[in-house]
Amino acid sequence: MHLEKNEKKILVVAYSYSGNTHKIAQAISCIAGGDFCDIYPWQPYPMSFPELLEQVRKEIAAKYRPRLLPFPYSPHNYDIVFVGSPNWCGTIAPPLFAWLKGNELSGKDIYPFCSHCGGVPGNMQKDVQSICKKSKVHKCLSVINDGGEEIENIVTQYLSETNILLYGNCCHLK
């Protein structure tokens, strides 16, 4: 059963290090409708990949939640929340972890999504569910890199499988 247009308010939230997760989030927002905003940590991550990997491993092991820059939307006003992150070491990135822990999402339908480069597989749905115990967490959309030229088709297929009514299938993302 598809939702009627504008019956449910949609928020798309994403942390993106390299831009891959951002592009997926843009496609979701464009195709499903809804508001979209990136999450930014107060202190940016290192640009050097070896330094990034070392820091991320330590943060994930410690369940570290970085301080985030102010976020313009309250998830309280939305029924459906898409949450995205790169797959870092088989789980969600610490900035998304911090955002999920810092917001009341009880009763929300949450749709996780991630970008990855084919590395360590993870279970993003399970990881988000462990934080959002009072929410209904749906199947995770997992996309290699930014999905390339197929991103609109990938997102459209996912939204169709999860019964989210498509707002428009004409984003022409660049």
Entry keywords:
single chain; 174 residues; seven-stranded mixed beta sheet; disordered N terminus
Can you describe what's shown?
There is one protein chain. The protein has 174 residues and is of the alpha/beta class. The protein has a single domain (10-161), classed as Flavodoxin domain (Rossmann fold), CATH 3.40.50. The protein is 31% helix and 20% strand. The protein is built from five helices and seven strands. The protein has helices at residues 20-32, 49-62, 94-101, 124-131, 151-161, and strands at 10-14, 35-38, 80-88, 91-92, 109-116, 136-137, 141-144. Strands 1, 2, 3, 4, 5, 6 and 7 form a seven-stranded mixed β-sheet that branches. A hairpin with a 2-residue loop joins β3 (80-88) and β4 (91-92). The longest helix is centred in the first third of the chain and has 14 residues, at 49-62. The radius of gyration is 15 Å and the shape is globular. The model is unreliable at 1-6 and 169-174 (pLDDT under 50).
Rg calculated over all Cα atoms = 15 Å
The top level CATH class name: Alpha Beta
Poorly predicted runs:
1-6, 169-174
What count of helical segments does DSSP give? 5
Proportion of residues in extended strands: 15-25%
Q: Name the CATH architecture.
A: 3-Layer(aba) Sandwich
- The termini sit apart by 31 Å
Secondary-structure element order, as H and E?
EHEHEEHEHEEH
- Give helix % range: 25-40%
- Tell me the number of strands: 7
Basic shape: globular
